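Figure 6 in text form: structure in, sequence out.
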């Protein structure tokens, strides 16, 4: 008999609690404190954290399925788990004592936004920086914040990375040192609180900095960390997308057995609907299976040092991009076929439709990823590819 996966069991066990909080999450744009506490006790913010720092270090397939299970009940909660776990991937690139300081508490969450044109100035022992960043998903639950910025050396020159581009340094600091700015008022994923934040004349010691640009420089031998952070980001978004679309499809199947549109036969008796439901189920199932097979194979062959090569990175990117695209296609199909039942607040469709079309605008959902994968497959890889 197959042993139940404890991470998946904990994620699925919280389904009713997440569903019960969904309306409040949407209305307040915040995650209730009692639900956040349950997520921490279920260790769902520590799925990708190294075991050396009391993380669970789960395999990427388990991670995808756990986020899918959560997203079936609320995409914002799943998204915040994705971003919390994504930020935890900086731990293998930090000095161990630094990682223990940040991730030691059971409620530890790091939030950050994408890099921008801000520079940090090198000073003895660290860096000094002022600036503002956006899209810090989960910042209202964070214990530490991060920022990604370029670096100006003492002589004013710009630090470059191995590719000859301006290097991006990640800097970590307690959340109390940031000013959180309420800017996240969007059509979807409203509960992620992906707000803006700023710091003024902040000094960050060198020990509390790292980089996402050198996956080969990881300190932890776990196979998971051979996969570049950006590849695991895509796994997270794929899980959220599959769960959101899967919930919409399940709701549509239930609707189809009960709804008879005016002037038409019952939806479940329509050959077009019958075919469409089957094809949608196959699209999601095939995307999930392809992603899980790919992730399992890449993970199984990953080493204890260095990073996977461009060909393996392309496999991860293709499988996750395919899952994201397929989920969006299925969500669109179910929303359209549900008719007016899809447009009212409180129903099974409209919030999920808004959520997945907010997800579709995030960089992990770009169509350009297929182009980059094709370049790798045809022997013309880009200079930088994660």
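Output sequence:
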């Amino acid at each position: 008999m197959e042993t139940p996966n404890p991470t998946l069991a904990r994620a699925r066990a919280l389904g009713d609690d997440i569903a019960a909080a969904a309306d409040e999450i949407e209305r307040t744009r915040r995650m209730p404190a009692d639900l956040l506490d349950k997520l921490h006790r279920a260790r769902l913010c520590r799925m990708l954290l190294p075991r050396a720092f009391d993380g669970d270090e789960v395999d990427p397939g388990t991670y995808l399925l756990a986020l899918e299970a959560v997203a079936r009940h609320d995409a914002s909660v799943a998204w915040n788990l994705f971003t919390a776990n994504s930020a935890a991937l900086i731990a293998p690139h930090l000095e161990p004592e630094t990682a223990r300081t940040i991730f030691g508490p059971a409620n530890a969450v790091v939030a950050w936004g994408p890099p921008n044109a801000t520079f940090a100035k090198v000073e003895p022992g660290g860096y000094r920086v002022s600036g503002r960043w956006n899209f810090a998903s989960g910042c209202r639950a964070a214990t530490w914040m991060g920022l990604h910025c370029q670096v100006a050396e003492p002589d004013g020159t710009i630090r470059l990375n191995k590719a000859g581009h301006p290097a991006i340094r990640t800097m970590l600091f307690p959340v109390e040192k940031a000013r959180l700015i309420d800017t996240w008022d969007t059509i979807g994923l409203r509960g992620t609180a992906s707000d803006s934040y700023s710091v003024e004349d902040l000094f960050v010691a060198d020990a509390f900095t790292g980089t996402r640009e050198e996956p080969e420089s990881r300190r932890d031998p776990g196979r998971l960390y051979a996969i570049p952070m950006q590849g695991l980001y895509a796994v997270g978004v794929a899980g959220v997308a599959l769960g959101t679309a899967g919930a919409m499809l399940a709701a549509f199947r239930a609707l189809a057995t009960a709804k008879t549109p005016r002037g038409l036969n019952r939806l479940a008796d329509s050959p077009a609907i019958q075919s469409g439901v089957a094809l949608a189920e196959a699209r999601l199932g095939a995307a999930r299976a392809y992603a899980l097979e790919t992730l399992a194979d890449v993970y199984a062959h990953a080493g204890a040092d260095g990073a996977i090569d461009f060909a393996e990175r392309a496999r991860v990117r293709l499988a996750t991009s395919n899952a994201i695209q397929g989920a969006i296609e299925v969500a669109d199909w179910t929303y359209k076929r549900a008719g007016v039942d899809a447009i009212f607040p409180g129903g099974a469709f409209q919030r999920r439709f808004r959520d997945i079309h907010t997800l579709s605008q995030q960089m992990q959902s770009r169509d350009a990823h297929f182009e980059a994968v094709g370049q790798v497959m045809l022997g013309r890889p880009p200079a930088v590819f994660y």
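Caption detail: The first helix runs from residue 6 to 13.
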